[in-house]
Design a protein that fits this description.
Helix content is 62%, strand content 0%. It is mainly alpha-helical.
């Protein structure tokens, strides 16, 4: 094997160890370590949550984020509560078709 091939392999080994190294401990107590997508999806399914994407105007999204932050809620909880209230109000009055 050539010397350059050996150096390439050494570089690949270094890159792999860097990718696999834990960095969360460097930033404090690993308590805020986010879950990977698969684990998060499983937790959401256990709670009965389903992804529901909508497109809304940017100013409305900003207002929702601000209201969630002011109320100490996460955005999903706030939007869920607002949808429940809106649907309850809409069911009490006739909706034009």
């Amino acid at each position: 094997m050539k010397r350059t091939d050996l150096e390439k392999l050494r570089g690949l080994k270094i890159n792999n160890t860097l990718k696999q190294g834990l960095t969360a401990g460097r930033f404090g107590a690993e308590a805020g370590q986010p879950l990977d997508r698969r684990a998060q999806r499983k937790l959401d399914q256990e709670k009965g949550l389903v992804p529901f994407a909508v497109k809304i105007p940017a100013d409305l999204a900003t207002r929702l984020r601000d209201r969630a932050e002011a109320g100490g809620l996460d955005l999903n909880t706030l939007v869920g509560e607002l949808l429940e209230k809106g649907l309850a109000a809409a069911s009490t009055r006739a909706i034009p078709e």
